[in-house]
Amino acid sequence: MLKTLVALVLPLLFATHLFAAPAGSPPLPPNSTLATTPLEHTFSPQMLALHKNKSRLIRVGWFDISGIFEQKNNVMTGYAAALLQALSQYTGWRYEWVHVAFQDIPRLLADGSIDMTCGISYLPSRTKFYNYSRLPAGYETVTLHALEDAPIYYMDLEKFDGMRVGIVKGSYGGLMLDRFALQHRLKFDKREYASKKELIEALRNNELDAYADGSLFGEGMKIIALITLEPFFFVTRKDDAALLNQLDEAMRQLQIASPRLYANLSDDYLRGKNVAFSLTREEHEWVESKPRLRLAYSARQVMMNPGQGGSNFLAELLSSLARRSGITFDYIAAPSYEEALAMVARGDADLISDVYAGPNFLAQNNLIATKPYHDPPIMLAGLDKAVPGSGIRVGATREMLAVGAAYLAAYPADQVIYFSSPDECEDAHQRRVIDAYIPRYPGMAVYADELQTMPFVTRGRYSMGLGLSDNVSPLALSVLDKAISTLTASEIDAMQMSRTEPSIPELLLRLIREYAPLFVLLVAVALILLTLRIIKVNRRHMMALAEAAYRDPLTGGDNRAKFLLDANACLRNARKTYYLVLVNLRRLKLINRTRSHAVGDMLIKLCHEELLRHSQGPGELVGHATAGKFLLLWQCNDDQDFRNRMEGFFASTVKLRRALDRAVIFSCGAYAIRHYDGQMANCLLLAETAESSLAGEDYLSRYALYDAAMEARLLRDNELENRMVQALRDGEFAVYVQPQVCLSDNSLHGAEALIRWLPPQSSPIYPDEFIPLFEKNGFIKELDLFVLRTVCGWLRRRLDAGQPITRISINQSKALFFSSDYVDVFTGILKEFDIPPRLIEVEITESMALQDEAQFKESLAALRRYGIFLALDDFGKGYASLSVLQSFDVDVIKMDKTFLDNATRDADATRVIIESVVGMGKRLQLTMLCEGIETRHQLDYLRNIGCDLGQGYFIAKPMPLEDYSTYVNTYPHTGGDTPPRNPS
C-alpha cells in the first residue's frame, strides 16, 4: 500500500515543480485579458485592405533567448518571429530585426530605436518603461541548468545552498530565482551577465555552478530544478498607443481564427528540442544498482516483433528508453495482450509494453502508467453511413483492448465489441453485426490489401504509456517519466519509420535481382499489374483524404472547408443575389454540461437535418463550421424573401424543442452578396459581424442582416475598447449612488452604487452603451473592483471621521462573480479597508445561475458566511420565476420597475401580483425593495401594501459620492411625511 501511495505522489511532485508558480508570484499586467476570450471581429475589410496598402515597417528588438528569437543564416526564426509573421496577415506589418542586449531594451524603446520586442515577463516596475500586450504571447519555464556531467542531483536543496548561479542582467529569471530561494530558505551567490552567451561561457569556465533562464533546453546542459511557469508578453513604446492597440486586436483575431497556432508554435520552437533532466539522489542510487524490469508484451504485437510486417516502433522506443534511463528490460513474450496484462497482475512481470493512460482502464487492471510517449489518432474502417459517437457498434480484436478503451473515452455513446482475430472482425462487419472496426494499431502502417475500405481518422486518440505494477519501486516510474520527457517529436517519428515493411516497388526489385532468370518472361505482366494496383491504391487514398478533409464527422455533411470551397465556386457564376448566413446554436455548452454531450451532439445533428430541409434550392449549401455553428448559402429574390425564409426556419424549430424538452435558441447573422469579388473571407466576416450584433440574454431566436450601421457600431465599440483602460487610469469613471429609504418611517436605509463614464472633453457615455461591451471583453471586472474599492474608501473615511454611514449595494457582473478567486478577492478588499461586512450588499441576478448553478450557490454561501448581505436584482424582469425565492439564500428582493409600470396600465391584475409577491417575501422573512418609484401615488401604494424599501427618482436621483455625503449628513433619519428630494 505504501509503495502505491509513493508511486502516485512522486510523479505528481515532479509535475508540480514543472508547472506550479511559487507563492507570491507577481500579478498579470493591469490590462491583461489572459482569462477572457475575444468574442467578435473588429477588423473591418476596409481596415485590412488599408493595412496591406500602407504597410508599416516595425523595428523588432531581438535578444539572445533560446527558442524565442534565433538567427540562422541571416534569417530570423523562433517562436516570436513566427508569431509576428502570423499577426502580419491582420496588420500588414513588415519587420526590421534589430539585435539588442536585454538590459538596453527600456532605453532603445524610449528613444525610438525599436518599436517592440517579445519574450518579456511582467513586472510592475517595468510598466514605466513600456506597455504590455493585453494577451500573453506565450509561456516560458524558468529552470535551473547545470553542466550535463555536474555532480548535482535534481532538487538537491542542500547542494543548492551557497551555489554560484548566473542570470542575465535585468531578466525575469533573477526575480524568480530570488523567490525560489526564499521559498526553500536558500542562499545563492547570484551573479549577473550581459547575455546568455556570456552566462554559458562562465559556466563552462567553472566561474558558475548553474544558471537560471526561461528555457527547457541547453546544449550540454541538464535541468536540476524547475522553478516556475510564467506567461511572457509583447511590449511596445509608451508613446505609441496606436501600435499597441493594433497589436492587441491582431492577437485577438488570431486567437479566434487559429486557436491551435500558439500550441503548435510552442511545440515547434519551445518544446521541440532535447531536454535533459537530472535525477534525484534516490533515483540515481536506484539506477546505480542496475535495476532489471520484466516487461511483458503480446507475441502478436506488430510493433514489438521485427519479424512481422509494419513498423517496429515499440521495440525501438523501449530500446531507447533503456539507454536513457539505465534500466534493463527482460522481455517476456505472452501469447496475447490479455495474457500480458494477466502476467503483470499475477506478479510474473513488472510492466507491460503499452497501455491506454486513461484512469478507468488503469483502475480496471491495477496499473500505474508512465506519462504518454505517443498519442496517435484512432482510425475506423468499414464506415458507410454510420457516424462515430451516434451509438454505433465498433469491432476490434482482443489485442486492442487498450485501443478500444481509448475509443470509448472519446465516443462513450458507442459500443465496442471484441473478436479473437482480424478475420472474425471483418466477417462481423460484412454480416452487419458491427458498423465499423478498428483496423490495426493507430498510427501504424495499414496496407491496402488488408482492408476493403480505407480507414477514417476519428477524434479519438490512443495515449500510449508503459503500464507498471503497483509492486514495482516508485522510483522506476519517475525515472521512466524523465526518460520519456527527453524524447523529441522528430525522434518519435524516426522510430515509427524504423524497419518498416519494404514498399511494393522495393520488394519487386529485390526479387528481380535474386531471381532474374525466372522473371524475364513475366516483366511485362508484372508491370501492368503493378500499375493497376498503384492506381487503385492511390484512388482509395485520395478518396480517404477527401473524406477526412471535407466531411464533418458529427453530422456526416460538409464541413467548413468544403462549404467555403463550394460556395466560392457557386458565387463566381452567380446571376442572382445570394445570402451567406451564420447560424449559431445558443447555449450549447450549457446543454452539454447539464444534459450530456450525447444530447448536445444529437441536437447538432437535428439542426443540420432541419437546415438541409430549408436549403433545397439550386446552388444552396449547408455546412457545419464548428460546435453548434452552421453556414448557409441561400438564393433569395430580395431581403423580404430572405426574412420570410428565416422566419419559416425559426417556426419549424419547434420540433427541436419537443425533442430536447427545452427551448432551442438561434442567433443568425447574414450578408447579402450582390456582387461577388472572390473574397469569401470578407463575406464571412460581415456575416459574423451581423451575428455578433445580437448581444444580450435573449430567449427568442433572432437574426440580423448586415448593413453599414453595424459597421459603425463596431467601430464605436472598438473606439471605446481602445479608450477604456486609459480612461480608468485617468479617473474618467465615477461612482454615483442612488438612495434607498424605509417606506414605513421614511428613514434612510442605504444606497445603490452605479458607474458613470464622464470624459473631460466630451459628453457623458451612457452605461447602456459601454456596460454590454465591457461584459463581452471582460473589462467589466476591472470596473466592478473599481466601484468596490471606491465605496470601501468612502466608508472608511466616514468611519474614521465618526460621521454617519449607510449600507451600500454593489452590482456584480458574471465575469467577476465566476472568477475562480472571486470571494477571496472581494473579501480581501473589505479586509484591506477594514470595512464591516454588514455595510456591503451584493446584488446578483437569477440569470447568473444559468452559467454554473453549483458554483453560483457556493459563492453565495461563502459571501453569506462572511457576513455580506445579498440582494436579488431585477426580480419580475424577463423570465424571473417565483421558485428563485426558495432556490437562493438572499436577504433582499429588488422588484423591477416593470412591476409599477404594469400596475399603471392594468391595475387590478398587476396589483394582485405585486401584493402577492410582497406578502410571500414577508412570510419568507425577506426584505422587499421596489425600484423605479417616480410618483407620490406609487410610493403611497407600496407603503400601504407593506413593501419595506423604495428607490427611484421621486425619492432621489443618482448623485456623486461627495453629494451623497452631504445628503447623509443632512437627512432626517426618522419622521417626515415625504423624503426630501435631491435638488438635482
SSE inventory with pairings:
Layout: H1 2-19, H2 45-53, E1 57-62, E2 70-72, E3 75-77, H3 79-91, E4 94-99, H4 105-110, E5 116-121, E6 130-132, E7 138-147, H5 157-160, E8 164-168, H6 172-184, E9 189-193, H7 196-204, E10 210-213, E11 221-237, H8 241-257, H9 261-270, H10 281-288, E12 292-298, H11 313-325, E13 328-334, H12 337-346, E14 351-356, H13 359-364, E15 367-369, E16 377-380, E17 393-397, H14 401-410, E18 415-419, H15 422-430, E19 436-437, E20 456-461, E21 464-469, H16 474-485, H17 489-496, H18 504-514, H19 516-519, H20 523-550, H21 560-572, E22 578-585, H22 588-595, H23 597-613, E23 621-626, E24 629-635, H24 639-652, H25 654-660, E25 666-673, H26 680-692, E26 702-705, H27 708-729, E27 733-742, E28 748-757, H28 767-777, H29 780-801, E29 807-811, H30 814-817, H31 822-833, E30 840-844, H32 853-866, E31 869-875, H33 884-887, E32 892-895, H34 898-905, H35 907-923, E33 927-930, H36 936-944, E34 949-950, E35 959-960, H37 961-970
Parallel strand pairs: 1-4, 1-5, 8-9, 8-10, 12-13, 12-14, 17-18, 17-19, 25-26, 28-29, 29-30, 30-31, 31-32, 32-33, 33-34
Antiparallel strand pairs: 2-3, 5-11, 6-11, 7-10, 7-11, 14-21, 15-21, 16-20, 22-24, 22-25, 23-24, 27-28, 27-34, 27-35
Helix pairs in contact: 1-16, 3-8, 10-16, 22-23, 29-31, 34-35
